[in-house]
Amino acid sequence: MWSNISAAPFLLTGFPGLEAAHHWISIPFFAIYISVLLGNGTLLYLIKDDHNLHEPMYYFLAMLAGTDLTVTLTTMPTVMAVLWVNHREIRHGACFLQAYIIHSLSIVESGVLLAMSYDRFVAICTPLHYNSILTNSRVIAIGLGVLLRGFLSLVPPILPLFWFSYCRSHVLSHAFCLHQDVMKLACADITFNRIYPVVLVALTFFLDALIIVFSYVLILKTVMGIASGEERKKSLNTCVSHISCVLVFYITVIGLTFIHRFGKHAPHVVHITMSYVYFLFPPFMNPIIYSIKTKQIQRSVLRLLSV
Question: Where are the transmembrane segments (predicted)?
Fold first, then answer.
């Protein structure tokens, strides 16, 4: 009996109790998804096409845009299928793969933001050595390191999902697959799958955030030592976009964590909404932040529009 239940596909969930309004809810979701695709796709095109943007800072920005684009393309098909045509079934393999990509890219995004803070630290604290430190080969090595950390660190908790038995309810709580949702449905010892993510979050998100804060303490110390007020302002302005993206990312992470830990009595729809905010708000905001705050990006956008 268990094997038959275990083989049954998982069922994704939209907004419980609001199924009749799914078509209306799909309109802002679709608009945001299209905005994310256009915004990040445009950033990638500009960085590839404009030789003035062939610098380490923009290479890391391209990695950020690529990460946001991929996570959006990963969640969009199942979310829109649930909202548009109520297609809820997802096979185990597809579900585990989706969860693997989503969680891996979250760690990649944190790593890219850390790499960007290193770029700003080198640019402001050792400007004369910037080009010799952040060479193309070093930028590639950092990028590969960030990708490998993200994708290899998620293999241990995702692999056991393939051999767990699933004899409980097959209903997931979102319109996409998450590791914490799937493991709760397993009829097996999930102790490792409970502990590992906590350790992983501490060694990635938490540690990355600490290093970013420390790097900005050193940057501020260097900037405050600059005699000219105009030069101080110019140096800090180069960090505004990155700081804004860091705040957007980590505030949504903290918000989601707090809702899961302390919002047990909050309506289920609040938990679901916070999850969507976490996956959609940073990819939506990052291109806007860089387009508004970075003059080189503004010039490239204007050049593209004037063609």
Answer: 30-47, 59-85, 97-118, 139-163, 195-219, 240-263, 269-290
Question: Side chain identity at 293, as an amino acid letter?
Answer: K
Output the pLDDT for position 307.
62
pTM: 0.93
* pLDDT tens digits for range 192-235: 999 999 999 999 999 999 999 999 999 999 988 876 778 888 88
Type of residue at 53: L
Give the start-to-end residue ranges of the domains of the chain: 7-306
Within the chain, what is the greatest distance between any pair of CA atoms?
Answer: 76
pLDDT tens track for 15-65: 988 899 999 999 999 999 999 999 999 999 999 999 989 999 999 999 999
Q: Could you tell me the fold of the domain covering 7-306? A: Rhopdopsin 7-helix transmembrane proteins (1.20.1070)
Nearest to 35 by CA among 76, 6, 84, 96: 76
Phi, psi of 264 (to 5 degrees): -60, -30
- The residue among 68, 81, 84 whose CA lies nearest residue 36 is 68
Q: Is 188 helix (H, G, I), strand (E, B) or coil?
A: coil
Q: Any bridge partners for residue 171, and if so which? A: 11
Position of tokens 């502990």? 195
Helix (H/G/I), strand (E/B), else coil: 235 = helix
* Cα-Cα end-to-end distance for the chain: 64
Cα separation, 71 vs 109, in Å, equals 10
Question: 99 exposed, middle or buried (CB, 10 Å; 0-12, 13-18, 19+)?
Answer: buried
The type of residue at 201 is: V
Assign 279 a pLDDT band (cuts: 50, 70, 90): very high
